[in-house]
Design brief:
Chain lengths: 156, 138
């Protein structure tokens, strides 16, 4: 599991005891506080504002000058949820949209070192990456993006 | 205006008109995969629209671009430029190409034979984007 993935699940291993549950809640609270800070969180990095801008600009048919569908409200909402769940201090992606109406997140270092994720309205993350001589692609659930978190570390 | 005919040669330049600013990376003016992703097409299922540069002067090419993007949506942002790539790169990405002349663009063509699943489409679009270059509108 990548370091980013370990930080994605701050609650650690499950425990049924009252003490364990208390510790889990406190960890989550700490995680949320860090995520909300200006310097570490996606909000502070301007990414959530960028997501809103894309939502507005791509809200009409043909926003690409061709046949693009309006960006799905569900894709925007799930993108926001995914961004807010990234560990504090994560490298921020840039936001885009595809003609199929899905929001995209991109982590980029060079044309052949890049990761792009499409935020499906079904709660799935569709990803593809170029990693120099290698490449990767697949689908993961928004709640458990283990491979994606590893790819973010490789690319960013 | 000269128009091209015959098969699309590997050495031809194909261009996708860019209207949406977030398809161009601000850091280095390269093109994102989003710009090449296909959309629904009544003839080909899903396809990406491009224009063949063959036989077109720069002036003719940009006139086509302005006419085409304005005709579709007069209220969208202005034409920013084009993402240009060699036809051979489309073949190398595992995709096909077909001439598809239309009323206001006799050089119109489509990138077709996209895979069915989204992640494979993205992988192919990443390769097209990496092989392309952004040309600002003139």
């Amino acid at each position: 599991m990548s370091n980013l993935a370990r930080r994605f699940w701050p609650t650690g291993s499950a425990t049924a005891s009252p003490t364990g549950e208390f510790i889990s809640r406190m960890r989550q609270k700490g995680f949320n506080s860090l995520q909300e800070t200006f310097s570490l969180g996606m909000e502070g990095k301007g990414v959530l504002n960028e997501l809103l801008e894309v939502g507005k600009e791509c809200s009409i048919n043909g926003w690409d000058g061709d046949c693009a569908q309006p960006v799905h409200v569900a894709s925007i909402s799930l993108a926001r949820r995914f961004l807010k769940s990234l560990p504090p201090g994560s490298t921020a992606p840039t936001i885009g949209a595809e003609p199929n109406g899905l929001v995209t997140l991109e982590w980029y270092r060079s044309p052949y070192r890049v990761l792009s994720i499409s935020i499906g309205t079904d709660g799935l993350l569709y990803y593809a990456a170029l990693l120099g001589d290698g490449e990767a692609r697949g689908v993961e659930r928004l709640e458990s993006p283990t491979t994606i978190l590893g790819l973010i570390e490789q690319v960013a | 205006m000269m128009t091209s005919s015959g098969e699309i040669a590997s050495s031809e330049v194909l261009s996708s008109f860019i209207v949406f600013s977030k398809w161009i990376r601000k850091t280095d003016n390269t093109v994102k995969q989003d710009a090449f992703m296909p959309s629904s097409d009544p003839k080909f299922g899903i396809a990406t629209s491009v224009t063949r540069r063959e036989g077109l002067s720069d002036e003719e090419f940009w006139r086509i671009g302005r006419n085409v993007t304005h005709a579709r949506r007069a209220d969208v942002q202005k034409l920013l430029g084009s993402a240009d790539l060699l036809a051979i790169k489309v073949t190398m990405a595992g995709l096909g190409m077909v001439q598809d002349p239309v009323e206001n663009n006799p050089n119109h063509a489509c990138i077709i034979q996209w895979p069915a699943n989204l992640e494979a489409q993205k992988a192919a679009a990443l390769k097209l984007a990496a092989a392309s270059r952004f040309s600002p509108v003139r």
